[in-house]
Write a structure and sequence with these properties.
Helices cover 34% and strands 19% of the residues. The chain is α/β, with parallel strands linked by helices. The chain folds into two domains: 139 residues, Creatine Amidinohydrolase, Chain A, domain 1; 247 residues, Creatine Amidinohydrolase.
């Protein structure tokens, strides 16, 4: 989707910013690449480029002589540099009278997902008398929001993931009932095949984690490292994917089963706690959306984590409550985080994100992950919520 310069300028004026300075070197700023249409790999970006959208007037570009055509598809004027002295002069001219600009920067790297501009470039801008503020909320409005078509593609991907999840649990149950040996890796590879059948694409194979491996949030089985799926333990599935069309956004879910007729008291207590935490987070998002009120990412995380801490599970929390969803599975919008970071960005209308509280022990782990889409005055869970552990015998 082309960058809407007029819409950007309206927001810049409202926020009392002189401009938004997009900058990249060699792919170091994927947000800037995405916004300017350079993320498709059709252009070589081995030299520094700058694109300033001022609050009023034409945008201005500064590009290297050997890659002078890279920003020609964008509106505005262009200056070309080659040597370092030309770069110095060019940057000064590009900034002109601007004194307060947004960049992909986060003070003290508090939100590393938005902190894409290196310290040296920040120094170069500041020495010209320019104040830099974070572009976090700008990025959300112009890169992280979903179109109607993207929401439909997300729902399509979500439905496919739920079908694959059901097939995986059924496959594990049948293998156990028939006395067939099956490993985490065997089941994962079947799921990879089902992804192809459903027309889904992803950046990694799904997580299939038994017992103690489920206690590692980012465990992935491999041909060399895996456990056998056996009785009397948990089986965690985490799967994410999107439709293959350009611009499609991800869906991402996690479900947990137990290889027994009934979960243990310990397993049930842990899973019950994360369900309550998840649902408390959903209620907060829905209430604020219905009231048309701002909601920050850290507030949702704090709400969910408080439930887990009150239940005595605080020390078993290892990660934030959720992340933005976009064309990458971890998108550029607000993350639900007051644990790993303090994400003060607002959850914008027309954005999607996960809610996924988890608890991780030495012998097992549990996580429930759903996807939420916030509209103008509502927030919708786009798939089924798991309410109890799936029994697989």
């Amino acid at each position: 989707m082309p960058l809407d310069v007029a819409a950007v300028q309206r927001v810049l004026t409202r926020e009392r910013l002189d401009g938004w300075l997009l900058y990249d070197f060699h792919g170091s700023n994927p947000i800037a690449q995405q916004l300017t249409g350079l993320a498709n790999g059709a252009h070589m970006t081995t030299r520094r480029w700058y694109y300033l959208i001022p609050a009023s007037g034409e945008p201005r570009a500064l590009v290297h002589a050997i890659e002078r055509g890279n920003l020609d598809h964008l509106p505005g004027t262009k200056s070309v540099y080659a040597g370092r002295q030309q770069l110095e002069t060019g940057l000064t001219a590009l900034l002109g009278p601007a004194r307060r600009v947004a960049m992909e920067y986060s003070p003290e790297c508090a939100i590393p997902y938005i902190s894409r501009v290196d310290a040296g470039t920040v120094e170069a801008v500041r020495k010209r008398g320019v104040e830099i503020v974070s572009s976090g909320d700008l990025v959300q409005q112009f890169e992280a929001t979903w179109s109607v078509e993207q929401l439909a593609q997300h729902r399509q991907a979500s439905a496919a993931l739920y079908r694959i999840k059901d097939r995986a649990f059924e496959q594990a149950s049948q293998a156990l009932a028939g006395g067939r040996r099956q490993t985490e890796y065997d089941l994962q590879q079947l799921m990879v095949q089902w992804f192809r059948e459903e027309g889904l694409v992803s950046d990694a194979p799904p997580v299939v984690a038994m017992g103690r491996n489920a206690g590692n949030p980012h465990y992935l089985p491999t041909a060399e490292r895996h456990l056998e799926i056996v009785r009397d333990d948990v089986l965690l599935l985490d799967l994410w994917g999107k439709m293959p069309q350009p611009g499609a956004v991800f869906a991402d879910i996690t479900w947990v089963g137990v290889i027994s007729r009934q979960a243990s008291a310990e397993q049930s207590a842990a899973f019950g706690a994360i369900v309550k935490a998840r649902d408390a987070a959903v209620r907060l998002v829905q209430e604020r959306a219905a009231a048309g009120q701002d909601l920050r990412g850290w507030e949702v995380d704090r709400t969910a984590r408080q439930v887990l801490e009150d239940a005595g599970f605080g020390k078993y929390v290892l990660h934030r409550t959720g992340h933005s969803l976009g064309e990458n599975v971890h998108g550029n919008g607000t993350h639900l985080d007051d644990y790993e970071t303090h994400d003060e960005r607002r959850i914008m209308p027309h954005t999607g994100f996960t809610i996924e509280p988890g608890l991780y022990f030495d012998t097992f782990g549990v996580r429930t992950e759903i996807n939420v889409y916030r509209g103008e005055r509502d927030a919708v869970v786009t798939g089924e919520r798991q309410s109890e552990l799936v029994t697989l015998l």
